[in-house]
Amino acid sequence: MDIQAQQDYLGALRALKEKRRRERLLIILACLIGFLIASSLDLFEEVYTFVHDHESWELDELFLLSFFVSIGLIAYISRRNLELVHVNSLIEHYATTDPLTGLLNRGQMGAMLEHELAVAERYSCPLSLVWIDLDNFKRVNDELGHVCGDRILRKMAGLLSANLRNSDLLGRMGGDEFLLVLSNTDLEVARQVAERQLELIRAVEITELCRVAPVQLHHLTASIGYCQYRPGESMESLLHRLDEAMYQSKRAGKDGLTLAAEGLPSHA
Question: Is 176 assigned a catalytic role?
Answer without folding.
Answer: yes
